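Q: A reviewer asked whether we had any structural model of the full assembly, not just the individual parts. We don't, so I'm hoping you can provide one. Inputs are below.
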Amino acid sequence: MNAQNISCNIKISGIVLDSIEQVALSNNIVSIESLGKEIKTDSKGQFTLSGLCPGKYEVHISHLNCEHIHVLIELHSDTFLKISLRHIERELIGFKLSAKLEKSEDLNHLNSKNMDYRKGQSISMLMQDIAGISLLKTGSTVSKPMVNGLFGNRVIIVNNGIRLEGQNWGMEHAPEIDAFLASEIDLIKGAESLRYGADGIGGVIRISPKSIFNEKPKTLNGEINLIGNSNGRGKTGNLILGGVLSKSLPIYIRVQSSIKQFGNIKTANDFLANTGMSEFNYSVNLGYLRKGFLSEVFYSEFHNKIGIFTGSQVGNLSDLEKAMSSSSPLIKANFTNTIDRPYQLVQHRMVKVRNALQLNAKNKIELTLSYQKNHREEYDVLRSANSFTGPSFDYYIGSSFAELLWTKNPFHRINWKAGLIGLRQSNAYTGRFFIPGFYQNSFGGFVMASKQYKKLNIEGSVRCDQKHFEIYRWIGTVSNKTQLNYAGLAYVLKAEYQLSNKEKISFIQSSTWRAPAPNELYSNGLHQGLASIEIGDSNLTKERSYSQSLAYSVHQKKYKLDVEGYYQIVNGYINLIPSNKVILTIRGAYPVFEYQQNKAALYGVNARWKYQINKSIYSIISGQLPYGQNLDTKKALNLMPSANGKLSIGYKHKTLNVDVWVNYQSKQNRYVVGSDFMPPPEAYALIGFDLNYEFISMGQNFKCGITGSNIGNSRYRDYLNRFRYFTDEPGVNISAKITMNINHKKTKSI
Amino acid sequence: MSSEIKRITLGLAMVLVGFQACETDPKPYMPPANEGELITTLIIETTDSASGQKQVFKFKDADGEGGNAPSQFDSIELEQNKTYSVNLILLDESKTSVDTISNEVLNEGEDHLFKFTVSNINLGIRLDDLDKNGLPIGLKSIWSAGSSGDGKLKVVLKHQPGIKNGDPALGETDIEIEFNCRIK
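A: Here is a predicted structure for the entire assembly that you could use as a starting point for your response.
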């Protein structure tokens, strides 16, 4: 066939429906980007694109309240598409096309494909590919996300629609989430962020599993993952199985379980004593979906035991100084899977029930109830082998949460969402004092609205909260009860303008607030491992943040560029600052760190540029430049990530994909001299690669991969690792993975 | 619609069952259990070898590290040209029944070692007890005071499980107190 002779008169027509109500969705934009063709669905949800040549096309369907979808189709003749969208939600159900669904590449979004090469790593590790996210680490086994330099209580993590409530305040407390459940991760910055709270001054990280309503009748659907790691001799396995009982009884079921074991991690030169970990998780998800009604129950358990590097528990300042001055660990180790003291033992259980009722085409009501129980025990090194066997401290936090959500769409041509939220939390501890026991009762409400004016989309949200804390502190043998109340208003405004169908620009302006956490108010004690004493300040008031960001993106066929700049002022930023006091103890004099409030500014730029060199070779450059400044003292904020970047080159041919990259982390020169035990470590560059191949065997889809990190076995330390005083970062690691997709169609019905 | 309401009610009932779990939450106002291990007090008991006269010097910080400042921190006073036999006693006075930690240190003598460091003062110290491996512990020692003067005496206790070889640089520090010391 000659190119000139191809008849270019093929048409694609179709209909877009709400998957629950099966009502037509108008005003969807259906486009084929490569041809610059674009059309809106009419009031019957129908569309037609004509005058197309045969070939492969990427059809893009977008709607204000739905996910943007790409569908790959190969056109030979006129084609009819029936597209079901879960309206008002990001979930997709009952999708009738076999094509892959993916949201367009975005600085703040990761889909399962982007995360594939990190399979088997912790949830925080997965997040770090989002622009602006760095990791605050404690050794090699504990890490938590930091968004543009903010972490802990300032970052909200939403797991499966529910805000994660753990011992979030602790620097050495990692999020208690099974990474195998994550199918998408978003850093939410727009109006929707307020749905999850006003205290996410740093951001809201939302981890979404694959919707259970993707399961199809008469099909057993699932995945098996097996992963081996050279460093730590890690073994990880995961199994997901899901299906639907029958077409007439639409009960969706999915079960999942993962297990992980690592032994001592090795740096470039030495094994690190007691750095193994083990993890066991499982979850059960049940769903029911009938026209206009959806109900879902989700239960998950997370258990892990994390060894803490033995040399990090120093008795006092002299021990710390000695450990810092040694170039190799003072405690020698070999490989072992055994975990001794010090270690952390963490359990997190969550149950969630969600009911959604589509009252009519324009109104939906959703009620979500959940309960989470977090139990964290930390076992320190014992002074005497037989004096005591329990944990050195033991925290419990139980959180009951309810959300009532009403979606109205559209009303006066504006799409609305409003919600009421209640939280009851109880926190208790035994053992060494860190954070007092407390009850928290909070109540909040929010309204979100969005409106499309031609190429301009405006969205906004307002939220008000009332928080009540009842804090119990023991002073000697006397219990002291303090009642605290906080109330505040928060808003987010976002405007996004489509400059062309390849270019858009968006601006976000927001003001959010956070109440001081009980540990910031009342902590008073020794920080094991850092040989310092932290003292809270009961006069702390709430933090108020004002933030602006501007983002620009252009997605051409040849290149994709995403840039964002942000500037944030936090009034009353609560900061742990070294005082020039020392406190005399039986273990010598300890430096004192005090919580103080200052006016702080956080600003910076995040960018990513992807360039398609030719059909099969591409290159990606990404980087972040974060800054933090204490405006009162006119000095740098401590513990900010330094400028960093990643250059990667990729090759893709059919189902083979190879990527090689270099990560560069500059030295953090911005810190307050004398405020740290040791100056920040030197800059480093690390080389990594990923090779993966997909194939079909025995009727099932397999994916194999080999990933290498720090393949030069470089010796380096990271400023954001709290163990930078004691140990190098891990040396080379090679991990091999195999994923088997289970897609078993029952031919006979039972 | 009524069937939907039934389903919602059923869903809610299931949640309520789940919420029963909250009732088992530990109560924030319960007193926190005692800390596992704490040394609050170091007592130096000196006995004049010639006269048998006893003196006691104390460091006491009843609530452990942080919190309130040490409630007692004595200066050591000795007399010149005298020899003392010295006993160290460690206590945990944070508990209602005072725990004598020095008994544990003695029982696990092979994991512990005291070190005395003297500065600007004429005081000789010799450890006078042995663990089961024949290495000194330091709960008992002999002090020989020389000429008069003012200086410092630092008492350090190292925890050296499995690594004790007589070198006081090893291990983790359990105690480090620098006393003012005067020889009259």
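A: Points you may want to mention in the reply: Chain B has one domain: 41-183. Chain B touches chain A through 52 residues (CB under 8 Å).
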